[in-house]
Amino acid sequence: MAQALTGMKIVDLSQVLAGPYCSMVLADMGAEVIKVEKYPNGDDTRQMGPYVKEESYMYMMVNRNKRGICLNLKKEEGIQILKELVKDADVIIENYRPGVTNKLGIDYETLKAINPSLIYCSISGYGQTGPYKNKGGYDIMAQGLSGIMDMTGEREGKPVKVGIAIHDIAAAQTAIQSILSAYIYRLKSGVGQYIDVSLVDAGLAWTVWEAAAYFGKGEIPKRNSTAHRVSSPYQGFQTKDGSILIGAGNQKLWEKFCLYVINKPEWINDKRFLTNSIRTQNVNQLELEIESVLQEKCSSEWLSLLDEHGIPCSPIYSYDQALEDEHILSRDMVLNYEHPIAGPMKTLGFPAKFSETPGQLRSPAPLLGQHNQEVLDELGFTEEKIRELVSNGVLNN
Question: What terms describe the molecular function in GO for this protein (predicted)?
Fold first, then answer.
């Protein structure tokens, strides 16, 4: 079956999450990705559990559809091998701390001299410029600096980290769209370019509603539990046996909610709840009033009634419930495959459904250095030379 990015070659020097997620999505769409892991132990996620037969599930989750080599870039011969790989590559992805690639001699300007049309994408915590560029930057630090952590949590509680590595994934998605934009430009012009992506910038760019409130009216977003800042009711509510989400944020939905779901027609003309804006100003009182009614029935009963009247709603699942939901399974968001060591495995599916060039799970994540021989054969290295590189600590065995 055809794939959209068949023919694109990517050399991926990144590790852990943001870079590997970026290259995984491109690989899912057909790109050839050669993952270059650091010698001798590989990507740091190989040392992170859980493990299945000594293989890291964390590593396997974001490195499918790639070939892998383990290369010592602290040795000149390792650098020369990388440069050979770059000669016919379309893209290189790296997430070293700024300045490291210059020290190694694999920075953009150096590799551009080898391959003038190269697209070179750097992903870092704070970016390649600015006063914080040399700081170590992980997702949680980006959540703190971007203001996202301060606006997350219970109203009177402490700042709370978002439950997933949101800045890592934001950076990965930013890198994906940037690489594809640069690739399209190169197809038209023949010109490659350098791309600088930071975790902080990528996550901050997602705070569009919050920026509108601040730039427009000087409002500083504060922790608001599950409630929305400009729409109400649009949040989680306690029922008799748990919690559900209700999104009746416009006037039509609000009136249907009052009339047909909770049987409170008098709320439609209640001065506290007349408009969406007024309801949002009185969200704490509104929450108490709604929950006093929702305590009468179980979550499943309310969800059924809300669905019946076309009011957006959802259960609040634990993660295992999410992965077992019939809708998620029907959308092929859980895939099964066979790993050569770990055996039968599950992984997440492809979120975009293409009619002509769908994502494909072609191969599991590579074992450490699995494709050393194969990749170096393609570069013209002899068996004797490969053995010499292994004995000299340039490649793993």
Answer: transferase activity
